[in-house]
Amino acid sequence: TTYSGALVKIKHCLKITIKTDSRYTSNLTLEIPIEAGEPQEEENDVVVEASPEVEGVVKLGSAGAVMGGAIREENDEDDKPASKKKKDESAEAVGADTEATLEGFLKELELSVNDLNITKKRTAESKWDGVFEALSPEQFGQIFRDIDNAFELPEIGVLLSKKIPTFTCEYVVAALQTMDPKHSRTRFVNTMVPMCSDITDTYGLITKELNDWERVSTEAAFVKAGCAVEEDQDEEVEC
What we know:
Number of helices: 12
Distance between the termini: 43 Å
């Protein structure tokens, strides 16, 4: 999300469509979120750093856009938009006396523009352990409804999953169902697959929530975790 206000929310994304000539294969589409902000003085050229998952970083000095990788944080407080300053100040006010409850945590995420820092802080505090340990899949999914930055989803998922005694595929499914469908969810799935204690038995719950492109992009993670993904696909073809 480039801008999130009371009435208006602005998002930018790069849409890539791979057209196929096959009668049996539909065109594959991938949408990569782009975070636009103020440019840095030293970034006057275009720099591209690719990665195996097409999750590279594209930095445009003139437009201040960032695609795929971690979002650059502003160093100068005066350069922050008024809406972000207001959310930061509100989050600090809530954080000062936030009660250790799920409702309190969700309120902090709603007001904050740095959800990852909030999550790191709360998961490191022992008084919050009971809140996170008692999370149901539905409550886990609720948390991801309030995450503004798609690039923070995997790390937030890992931090929370480590607090849950028995983290299963149902938690991942609940999170996928509440996320913005325009977010790139492959990094989240690839990161969370090893965290699931029942992944080899119930991984199908997760794959049912994915589109064709996401299944292709996450197949290696499931195979590495010991799931019989390729065997299941062969059976479908035979039918």
